[in-house]
């Protein structure tokens, strides 16, 4: 029996109890199989179990430890029986008969037989003890065996992994560098073998955990800390293989097709992998062949999952190292990237919550393509690697997460395609629109102008993309209160859209809606209403009523009726828009917050203050969380709540809100913006009331 392998055995108390319970059944044959990936600690668990019960004398008939991988089981049983039990099987019998002779004359009492590292059950089965409940058979294996007493040994929990690392490097170092310690444990996938090797390396080299983390990130599985140094005379661990060698044993048992699947899976991010994406990659294999390969990986605990699958971090790195062994790996990477880019191209600009949920599993893999495999993406598809990620976050109102993707899209597209490529203009436009969503108007304007100039130069004036840029630039001027500059651009964009796309197009509906918004904010209600109604009808006809654009059209028409004092017509539209946004976008979205705010304003105007206040507060909290405290929409929410408190005579509560809103708008929109002027007037009225109370 091998000696203990670790400085301290941690995180396996429940596994030891479970293992003992499985071995105490009174079945004719009692077999417990500890299954799991290489390096997870199966042998160590069996060793610790055997040592504990050796001391407890649980097995008076003896504990027989047999090494199953690449060694003769029959000869080991005979050697044990002769040396430890004094048995003398007839030498002229064959090995199998001699083994049966020994089992039948084994010492009395319960017996524990450990078969360690079984890689071919059929070869060891003939040598198993007879069907007697006193023989307890414990198997450790990377295979998936179908015994009732089988269980899979998983990696350590974070707390157990930290405890194991602490045993090597000391509690003080872990406490001082706790975040780095956690990162190392995560980086090693909480694998006991890797943690023991790295812990010993840190202790011996006397380096910080931050430095260890840096070295692991640089070299990954190839770093020397994860290898056993055969020349190290101070080596005391009973570890026969390093991490890569432990995985190599499983690799050698795979078919060529299964190895190729492992390499393909290593291209995916370290995240759950939807099997449908794997099937979509052009590998030259049919569905059943892929399934066969997957089953083989699962049978060796190299892959886990059901409809989506997960590689352990170090196994993924091992498979990545194996990419060099495949001649067709470049083509495989190109095919993989093509599949992932197709997912990006299907993400709508105004995605619903259902669509976001459906595409979410693919997003980590899209990010992996953008970060590490962009050279395998075709020139025409390069922007999509970044735009898909950006669109995923942007459509949810998660603008801060979208920004780096759109910014990188501009830079990479310029480098790959040149400054004058149409995709560069599109990327500039997208980034500018995102800055507008964030209220960063001064950053957006030069990008919008640059995109418009590029498109005019490349595509001419008569192109839908030019119309889109005109519309977006007009939208920027609208948000800045530059209505006189916005109107001619909106009109030009609408005329272009109608001429190039026809009346029955969603972009025409968008242009109609935008122009109506401008007229509403200018108080030109009679001009706005027919445009709103036309946009609403078009959107319903072209996109249906279960679409975010339809909810937006309902909301905008309701705002017009609200401005006109037609409250009975506005309320059902606001309620319908709110319900639609809740269903389509979810409650953690800026558009949902805007609808809450609009409905609250309607109630406020009707003096339904008790209904307005909770909606204003909810909208304020949402806007703060989603957009931050420097966004003009947050200032609007502050001002609305201040207005409610003012109307209720709660002047001391209203003043700080009004001051904060004014400060934001003066800095973000300027002192002369219509909204800034309005709030400044509200603050003056508020202070008059406060002074009159003194």
TrEMBL record:
Coiled coil: none annotated. Residues 18-168 form the NB-ARC domain. Keywords: Repeat, TPR repeat. InterPro entries: Apaf_helical, NB-ARC, P-loop_NTPase, TPR-like_helical_dom_sf, TPR_rpt. TPR repeats lie at residues 467-500, 509-542, 593-626. Signal peptide: none annotated. One of its GO terms (molecular function) is ADP binding. PANTHER family: NEPHROCYSTIN-3, TETRATRICOPEPTIDE REPEAT PROTEIN (AFU_ORTHOLOGUE AFUA_6G03870). This is NB-ARC domain-containing protein. It comes from Nostoc minutum NIES-26.
